Amino acid sequence: MKALFIGGTGTISTEITKLCAKKGWDLTLLNRGNAAGSVPEGVRVIKGDINREEEVRELLKDEKWDVVADFIIFTPEQLQRDLRLFEGKTGQYMFISSASAYQKPLSTPWITEGTPLHNPYWEYSRNKAKCEQILREAYDSRNFPITLIRPSHTYCERSVPVAIHGRGGSFQILERIRQGKRIIIPGDGLTLWSLTHSRDFAVAFEGLMGNPHAIGEAYHIIGDESLTWNQIHECIGRALRAEIKPVHIPSETLGKLWPELVGNLIGDKSNNVLFDNSKIKRAVPEFMTRTRFDQGARECVEYMYSHPECQQLNPEFDSWYDSLIEAWDRAEASFPRYDGPMY
Length: 343
Fold this sequence. Notes:
three-stranded mixed beta sheet, 12 helices
């Protein structure tokens, strides 16, 4: 079977690339060649920028594939470009959408693939939903062979998931925990969240590739584990052999103080998420959570502290973070107390 990945060396896609190579796929990656060292032996790389449509059309003019998967589409305009490039050239087009596109706030605790796509808080999520709509129309009107994939919080060894972080990733938060500094956890930290290691994700994704039952279908690929944000940070603390010292600040307050967080928090991480993943398990029976988050957190910490390229500090963010905690302490101390009876 022959496949083309646009990207193929990112957080989600690297493990899929490795698994496809192991399973004997005739796999080609189209990317800018910046991560050539991580490409497995036997995987062909075509160096090119997908945003240069005519250049890519020329590079791929004599090619056809059983599967095309684009891991770097974020807007409807980018999707329309892919339709122009790949319509009639693939037996399956796999679009990486996002579980963040699901309804916010939720009208029912359990999320299925039939949960409405409606996120008024995050443009990223709305764009993913618009892309899905365009693909549905292409499937309905022209039989364009789509499979829609909705990841939630998928991580790899290069970056441990935390609730909030600045530019450069989560390492600054790891350092705060390691040094005994306090860390901000939105809300009361009891919101449930689902985390999926990219190795587990790859099993489900590869199992859908070339699968005739997946054409026209949508799947969220999300593991079995749900943890609170307190538990997630506690797992990270244990991996660092350090005690976490949480400061709980409402998500709404954080969003007002840093507007860029509104989509990420109010539109995603501040919502309880309980995913029904029975559909992907029916399609790919071997999919399951093989890496628990406490195991994954240890792997992330070991990898990040042994790879300097992962150790990106952000002093400006860290200074703001300290100032916010100090201001929150002062505000809490100034709140009026009430010592009257409850009933």
